[in-house]
Design a protein that fits this description.
Helix content: 40-55%
Number of strands: 8
Largest sheet: 8 strands, mixed
CATH class: Alpha Beta
Organism: Deinococcus piscis
Strand order of the largest sheet: 3-2-1-4-5-6-7-8
CATH architecture: 3-Layer(aba) Sandwich
CATH topology: Rossmann fold
Strand content: 5-15%
CATH superfamily: NAD(P)-binding Rossmann-like Domain
Number of domains: 1
Distance between the termini: 42 Å
Keywords: Oxidoreductase
Protein name: Short-chain dehydrogenase/reductase SDR
Length: about 280
Amino acid sequence: MLLNMTRHAPLNGRTILITGATEGIGKATAAELARRGARVLLLGRSPQKLAATAQEIGAAGTYRADLSELAEVALIADEIRRTEPQIDVLINNAGGIFGTRQETREGIEMTWALNVLSPFILTRDLLPALRASTDPRVITVASDAHRLARLNLSDPEFRRGYGGWPAYNASKLANVLFGRELARREAWLVSASLHPGMVRSSFNANNSGLQAALWKVMNLFAISPEEGAQTSVLVASQPELGVSGGYWAQSHLTAPAPAALDDGLALDLWDTCEDYLRRLGL
């Protein structure tokens, strides 16, 4: 059942691209945005899930890419720019946690690639389409897990001492810092990061053992995906949001962890991401 979201304005055909929108928070966010009149575009990995979700919620279109593979992200961003000259809102929602250390085909640790580098390159490459909007917004789904993080940019891939939760927490701190630095660099758009809450979903279902068992217990106390979508929908739709670079939780502007307010760390993160993409020729 959809929640009462009367605080949010109708979206009147605004084009919104959302990643990771075929299940969980992303799907609930996409469904509510479409219900409110947005022209919703879905970006995900599975053609079958994309088609089924698009039909179910009435999405305007779908794009397929493995968002952990950065060359694929760059290619799909190019395709989107060619077919969508204007994007009003980009929601970087996709992400994951990995109990054991894994690397992508490009040789990058999976958490760092999917949660940090992927939204970085997608946002960078879609800036021309966002510039065509009269009210462009970039929303990055982070987590209050960033409050537990230590971001070591000399080893962002956790080549030493990997742990699934430390890597995830660090990636969520990177998301908040990214939102802040994007706002500083691109003053013509509104950038926001947010915490959706502890949401009952298939998040962490790719893992096994104690980590997966603990998450199943936590799911018993978690909120629904529709409840978790509220903050994303508010930040996407509230007229004259005003604040750029802020961190939102429970539909309110909230102070993040002190490390997330470190402008020097935000700049170093940005430079680190650019270095990765240069090495990959992207």
